[in-house]
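Possible regression after last week's pipeline update?

I re-ran a chain I had predicted before the update to compare outputs. Posting the input and the new output here so someone can diff against the archived version. Not blocking, just want to make sure nothing changed silently.
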Amino acid sequence: MSRQIDVLLLLALPASGKSEVRRYLAQLPPAKCREDFMMGTTVQLDDYPYVHLMRSISNELRNLGEDGVFFDADHLPMKEPRDWGTLIELVNEDFADLTAQRIVDPRRPSFWMLERLDAARAKVGAPEPFRVMTDEVRRKLTDAISDECEAIIRDKNAVIPESLEGKTVVMEFARGGKQGSPMPLHPPYGYRYALSTLSDEILSRAAICYVWVTPEESRRKNIERARPAKAASTFMSLSHCVPEEVMLNEYGCDDMAWLIETSDMPNSVKIETRGCIHYLPVAFFDNRVDKTSFVRGDKSEWKRQDVEALHDDLAKAFKRLVEAMNHRLPQ
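New output (post-update):
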């Protein structure tokens, strides 16, 4: 007996097609989603808005002559690698608020966001920079990032439906390591660490769809997607470009294939965390020959043959994913 996918982790290297898959799934009629993908209407979570906020904070702090905290320059990787865990902790909070149908309405959004960042950092053992920041610097910083924080809170609240019954929560993020790194990737890099940082509530309900491209194709598409084009989507991550140094040092490889190969249960990723073992069903959507880039354009200009090719291959991947899920159903 098949069951609906409850939480879908949509994972891949940058520019692999994750956000395009999200957009495609989001526009499907509910009946088609259920029939071809065993998914309900999608509710979408993403860590990219927090990455963007971190870069905005770093820019503002450097303009004030202060340490950038998260980034020393726009083109450089994270200063503190444990912030890969910080991002997951923020997503954990968003998922908890989503499932509890908890609307947040802080009186001072930017102050609240800095407190969230400090608390998330503390959970992964990283310093809490905003707690010890001078009042003057904090005031200038919060004034500068106020609009962006309000937008994040507005979007965070907007995805919370009246009920999650019949819905599928889609969570997107990318993780990796330095080009040429041996496996396993050392924490806090890679999917093994990121998945182990997800809450038990998420891990107990999640299945993985991995969008497969090579690191070389990821870098090519990363440059391609940043070229000016007609914006037809509200997904922030459809057009942003990851700096080349970041692509090579943080996304030069990933550990998804290694995780599957070393799992002691077929078609799964084994995650050991907090004294528990979770087996997450997994299937690959092969996008090494690009099937998704057209989704960035206006829907009215999508070609039928492109839509059919994407839909058919996605449906095959989800069929394999559902089979992997069914294999784990209680007998």
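Follow-up from reviewer: compared with the archived run. The chain has a mean pLDDT of 93. Marking as no regression found.
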